[in-house]
Amino acid sequence: MRKRRFSSSGLFPLLITLAFLAGFFLPDLTSGGLRRALYAAQTVPQRVSLALQMEQDSQQNYLWPVGLFWDALSQLRNQYYQPINEKQLTYAAIRGMLAALHDPYTRFMDPNEYRSMQEDTRGNFFGIGAQLQEKEGQIVIYRPIEGSPADKAGVKSGDVIVEVDRKPVAGMRVDDVVKKIRGPRGTKVELTLRRKGTPNLLHITIVRDLITSPVAYAFMEDEKLGIGRIRLEQFNEKCDQLLVQKVRELEGKGLQALILDLRYNPGGLLNVAVDVASRFIDNGVVVLIQEKNGQITRLYTERGRAIKPYPLVVLVNEWSASASEIVAGAVRDNKRGIIIGETTFGKGLVQTIFQLQDNSAVAITTAKYLTPSGYDLNRKVDADGNEIRRGGIQPDIVVKQSEEMTDIEDREHDLQLKKAVEYLREKLTAPKVASAP
To answer: Is 347 in the active site?
Structure first.
């Protein structure tokens, strides 16, 4: 931590100048004003002494939390009946301090968590290439990435992970299991899997490799009319270029109308959300950023980046959050397309990442964002986690999902996707009205 230094060199002439200036101003009645009045009433030597005391008080006010923590840690060092892990205690203290804010997005990341977050943001990591999910208390393979080490080793969707390197994962969070599976390139990890229809557990050894997250998927939903769909899974650094790549693929198949599927997309980088919105909005405001002092900053699209203005539907659900909501809100407020699905999650807060001295980090909520029309979509909860305000982006056409749908690619039961295709079919086949001569 940088300490503020106080030097008396050059202070004497400064104090004389301030003594002349003090006569032109009446002190206010705040504590600062009273201190300034006291300061002005002293002789020059007294002022030097008082200034030093004021600076010392300021340092004490600034540093007392550090001193208090150090005092408690020293007592533990000297008095606790067993050896202590000071790093774990310090991390726990930081987490406890941030938890007192009751802000789930202001959080601490230890070096491993921070490194994993950076890998997700870049879209590259060393691992096996399988997407995991928690389902009914188990860690399940949601989908092996095509061509990945997991795919080549025979891992299949629906496989339940029982052990990683022969150590059980029962009761663990999915993020903790991911940490166990990821590792240096060229190293091995063994998964013990339970597969439906297979009586015995499977033990599969996989060699870790560089994995590029395929955050964009393209589908042609109606080949005759040219209705395409692009699903974005998150807004990482590769998202924008992959979006354009998928659009070009669909254009090669006769694209005439587009569905942007942001369901289950938890968000990502703010600048990437602006980049993606710029592909659909050639000229307009994407989002308003309201900073700590209340100042509003408008983020605009970058001109000349927009793709052809195809008829557009954005699909969202209750798990569409953050950057997904920025894009959906920008499309709606700029009247570029319509929103179909269910009300989004309601995360309207911006986090800034600050790296700490041991390569850990804190993500601190530094601002909130509003849609271009000024709508505050952030959901609000009390200290106990009870929802006070729902927030989120409300769709133009509300469609509740079928309870029979169990997978994002289950087209048969996907009522929201069916509605989007139906809407675009009607739009593409509607008779064109001739303009008046």
So the answer is: yes
Which residues lie below 8 Å from residue 371, measured CB to CB, with a gap of 6+?
287, 288, 326, 329, 330, 332, 333, 377, 393
| pLDDT attached to residue 433 | 61
Strand 338-341 with 312-316, pairing: parallel
Q: Are residues 268 and 333 in the same domain?
A: yes
Element holding 210 (H helix, E strand) = strand 209-212
Q: Based on the fold, state whether residues 236 and 162 are members of the same structural domain.
A: no
pLDDT tens per residue, range 281-330: 999 999 999 998 889 999 999 888 999 999 999 999 999 999 999 999 99
The answer on 387 and 257 residing in a single domain is: yes
Query: Beta-carbon neighbour count of residue 116 at 10 Å?
Result: 18
Q: Identify the active-site residue in 213, 322, 324, 360.
A: 322
**Of 333, 360, 414, 419, which one is the catalytic site residue?**
333
What is the residue range of 42's domain?
29-56
Q: What is the dihedral of CA 67, 69, 70, 75, to 10 degrees?
A: 130
| Same-domain status, 314 and 416 | yes
Q: Is residue 411 part of a domain?
A: yes
Residues 297 and 175 occupy one common structural domain: no
pLDDT at 38: 37
Tokens at 40, concatenated: 């002005």
Q: What is the mean pLDDT of residues 425-435?
A: 81
Q: Where are the beta strands (DSSP E) in 81-186?
A: 107-109, 124-127, 130-135, 138-144, 160-164, 167-168
- What single-letter amino acid sits at 407? D
Both 361 and 304 in a single domain? yes
In a domain, 7, yes or no: no
Strand boundaries in 123-201, DSSP class E: 124-127, 130-135, 138-144, 160-164, 167-168, 188-194
- To the nearest whole percent, how much of the chain has pLDDT over 90? 65
Instruction: Identify the CATH number of the domain in which residue 132 sits.
Output: 2.30.42.10
206 and 223 co-located in one domain: no
Query: How far is residue 261's CA from residue 337's CA, in Å, rounded to a whole number?
Result: 13
- How many structural domains are present in the chain? 4
Q: By CB neighbour count within 10 A (0-12 exposed, 13-18 middle, 19+ buried), where does 275 fall?
A: buried
Domain contains 117? no
Sign of CA dihedral 39, 42, 45, 46: negative
Q: If DSSP codes are grouped into helix, strand and coil, which group holds residue 203?
A: strand
Given the residues 213, 347, 414, 419, the one annotated as active site: 347
20-76 confidence digits (pLDDT tens): 233 322 333 333 443 444 344 445 555 556 555 656 665 566 677 888 899 999 999
| Angstrom distance (rounded) from CA 400 to CA 198 | 35
Query: Active site includes 167?
Result: no
Would you call 322 a catalytic residue per the annotation? yes
